[in-house]
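Page 37, continued from 36.
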């Protein structure tokens, strides 16, 4: 990251420290690696853009976390978010992300949707309360995705998520982290999702990646399409930037990669593409006096 000149990093709690046999052991594992991260950060200008709790891979979350029908799972998820939020704050993070990979359903035949949405709203309100209690001034972000791993996720797209926030009185507490690959999975362009968030004053962060148009799943590829980058940056400029949010690639190398240099080349390609998009927007403004967004 230092070689690339990148000053922000993002993390899931379980990506940097493993689960233990108990919650206390799990938190101790996280505390140990967080102290190392704190030390490494002190030697650089790097700090977290955002942190988050990984609430979808462990079998306990098979039916969701904040929408789980099992109260013990709901409570465990709340404790996990509490700890992740505290860790993000401790490391100087500027945002905190909620991505509900299993906050949805496989079938409505055994789902009480109204109750699950109310539980989700209560869960998020509790996070807001804890954020204020610990003095975390960062932005809370929700990252929409229509499906995968569940058949239907409650935060299907930006419009659906905004409706949810309005219904439960949470619009002033959360903004949106738009992921481009998730946008296309929901049947929209990334530009559409960004504009929907922007005009409703909830655009907070961007996962600038892309998917493969030949497949129907979340492939998390580095965005290298300059035309797409130009549209994305037009929304950012019209939004007067993203701060304290920013750009996270949320992309990975393919299995066929065999050279460590690929990791650098991939990130440089993504960074240069977004920079070219911004230059294009600046040129449009210079030539036309406005941003042409269509």
């Amino acid at each position: 990251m230092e070689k690339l000149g990148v000053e922000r990093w993002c993390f899931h709690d379980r990506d940097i420290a493993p689960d233990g046999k108990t919650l206390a052991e799990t938190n101790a594992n996280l505390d140990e690696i967080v102290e190392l991260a704190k030390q490494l950060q002190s030697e650089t200008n790097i700090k977290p853009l955002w942190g988050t709790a990984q609430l979808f891979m462990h079998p306990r979350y098979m039916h969701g976390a904040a929408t789980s029908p099992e109260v013990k799972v709901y409570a465990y998820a709340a404790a996990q978010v509490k700890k992740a939020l505290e860790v993000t704050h401790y490391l100087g993070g500027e945002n905190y992300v909620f991505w509900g990979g299993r906050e949805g359903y496989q079938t409505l035949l055994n789902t009480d949707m109204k109750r699950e949405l109310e539980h989700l709203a209560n869960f998020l309100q509790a996070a807001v309360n804890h954020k204020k209690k610990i003095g975390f001034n960062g932005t809370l972000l929700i990252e929409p995705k229509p499906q995968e791993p569940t058949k239907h996720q409650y935060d299907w797209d930006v419009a659906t998520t905004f409706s949810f926030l309005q219904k439960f009185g949470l619009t002033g507490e959360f903004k949106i982290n738009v992921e481009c690959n998730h946008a296309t999975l929901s049947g929209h362009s990334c530009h559409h999702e960004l504009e929907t968030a922007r005009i409703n004053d909830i655009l907070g962060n961007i996962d600038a990646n892309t998917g493969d148009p030949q497949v129907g799943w979340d492939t998390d590829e580095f965005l290298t399409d300059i035309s797409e980058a130009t549209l994305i940056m037009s929304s950012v400029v019209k939004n007067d930037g993203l701060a304290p949010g920013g750009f996270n690639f949320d992309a990975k190398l393919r299995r066929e990669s065999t050279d460590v240099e690929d990791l650098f080349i991939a990130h440089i390609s993504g960074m240069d593409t977004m920079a070219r998009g911004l230059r294009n927007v600046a040129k449009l403004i210079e030539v036309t006096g406005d941003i042409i967004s269509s």
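DSSP finds nine helices and eleven strands in the chain. Flag for discussion at group meeting. The chain has a mean pLDDT of 95.
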